[in-house]
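LAB NOTEBOOK - FOLDING QUEUE
OPERATOR: T.R.
BATCH SIZE: 2
PURPOSE: Compare the predicted structure-token outputs for two unrelated chains run back to back under identical settings.
PRIORITY: normal
REVIEWER: second-year student, initials M.K.

ITEM 1
FIELD SEQUENCE / FIELD STRUCTURE:
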Amino acid sequence: MIKPESILSADVLTAQSVSLLRKMVATPSETFSEQAVSDMLYSTLSQWGFDIHRCGLNLYALNQHFDSSKPTLVLDAHIDTVPACSSYTRDPLDPGNDPDIVWGLGSNDDGGSVVAMIAVFRHFHEANLPINLVLNLVVEEERCGDRGECLMFSQDGPAPVREARWVIVGEPTLMRAATSERGLLVLDGFAEGVSGHAARSEGVNALYIALDDIAALRAHKFERSSSLMGEVRLNVTQIAAGSAHNVVPDKCNFVVDVRPTDVYDNQELLQELQALCRSRLTPRNLKNRSSATPSSSLLLRAVDELGIEKFSSPTTSNWIKLPCEAIKMGPGDSARSHRADEFIRVQEIEDAVIIYIKFIEKLYGYFME
């Protein structure tokens, strides 16, 4: 069903992908400021012959033989970046000219996945497959915004995307397949006391209340452990209190980062942790649940038959917002993300293109048996 003469070679796909990635790095694309990179990608993909659609600043494209009666696989990656940290020794917007490495902010997270998925979409664009392919490039992933993935998979999003049967979430995983990932529950703690003069030990110290609560949170052991993800992880990551050295603070704020597993829902975790604390714990969001690929999914079958390594991801992604079956898999290494002097190797992109193609061939092959 594929027309070989319409397929670009892997070498050409890789070379053009690397060139596009360098343009992405050189284009500022911090979350909530993605207009320039969205425009650049729209222009480039239009020149390559895709019928590109926009939904806000998100971009999506359908394969040439898209048929709503067929099941749909979405190739999904994000085009926004975190801010550059202060410890960069290179210009974060300079991809360099090393033939083997692309440097710069967003090169690894998530530009490598973006350009590899674009390459794979180009490979299959004109082929008449038994499944649909949709390319979905979204904004606001790094800040959990509501105008990116949330919009695309909502009732206000485009039907070809929101009605997908499967999604490959492109994130740097060394092309291993994450078949589960932890959720995210961020809690703002607020301890309230009574101010007083420190020299006379007056008042009720809100900082001490918070410290006692933090100690209780650190010592807490959750009863249930997930066979996929292990134990729930919890860290207190921020604390603030006090206005002067001689004033007992009457307020103290702290932040708790909780990484849930599939054996707890976020409301249940909130209730369990609140019972430990005098401080008030307020969730920023209860929707960021943990995710897992169903054991019966054809995605898992393809992963296993191709011998792709599986793992459970400790980091969250747009997967938490998806209503359908998914895996997370992409070029690059998560350990390089959000760090100074970010980079991705050209070989990683080339390998990703080949693996993605084999994966899609395996998946659509199930409908030709």
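ITEM 2
FIELD SEQUENCE / FIELD STRUCTURE:
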Amino acid sequence: MSTERLRTASGMRPTGPLHLGHYFGVLKNWVQLQHERESFFFVADWHALTSDFANTSQLRQNSLEMVKDWLSVGLDPEQCTIFEQSAVKEHAELSLLLSMITPVSWLERNPTYKEQQQQISDKDLSNTGFLCYPVLMAADILMYKPQGVPVGQDQLPHMELTREIARRFNSFYGEGTFPEPEALLTPAAKCPGLDGRKMSKSYNNGIFLRDAMDDVAQKVRGMFTDPARLRKSDPGNPDVCNLFPYHVLLSSDEERREICEGCRGATLGCVDCKKIFLKNLGAFLNPLQERRAHLDQHPELVMDVLASGCARARVRAAQTMEEVREKVGLLRIAGL
């Protein structure tokens, strides 16, 4: 019986600062998975170019800042492989080979492609790279032959397409070449923005992992709560309050009970509720930001993590591509 560890692979686009939604929706799960599976986590810088190709001035800095955030929340380069997608050229080669067998109709029916074409009006999404985004994503995943991939509900169509591409490759070139990875659904973590909309950099309504607590306090003071509760003496409803989902994530069971009782009974005001949130948020953010400050002072540590991670990823990617080239029938010339 094989004793090889289960594997997982996932990435994130470096398009700006990470916020609480990124942590509770993605990174918290990554931190757990690194102890359970052989884990490959990559900076998806090529993916960022599919929509932000016209302005790449912040791409390098965003990539480095994102890795700092990853390390500060608990990703451990001794427990997982952290690397930059574009530094492992095999990803591009496998994406090219997979594109040869992927019907255009599969890409055009992708619901994410259709939705973003309709919803994003300030960027040109008519490029081939954006259409072929799922093929590159499939290459990123299949390169490491993972049994499972952590995704949110919205990524299930992409995961199914990855599985279809794996099946198609296997049917042409050899069963068992690529496993069909299962989606490891991340429990939904509700992190509404300060204004009630989805937390997003583009909406300027987020609490970011690198925000100073003074700035966070100012943001939270202006945060929407229960729209029907205009005065402390008005009974409230935590179920519709914009702030309460954060108590679910950060406050103790006892605190949540007291908040619910005080809100519904009009004995605890929104100002007091926000103070409890800020206390617990500070306890969460302060150690994270201390680790990040150390990385800011020693940027060479981040580069070392990426260099080591890229080297490890290349070893695995080279093994996969040697097998793929052989099965596809590409001529291999000695020394090249």
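REVIEWER COMMENT (ITEM 2): The CA atoms of residues 75 and 253 lie 27 Å apart.
FOLLOW-UP: none requested
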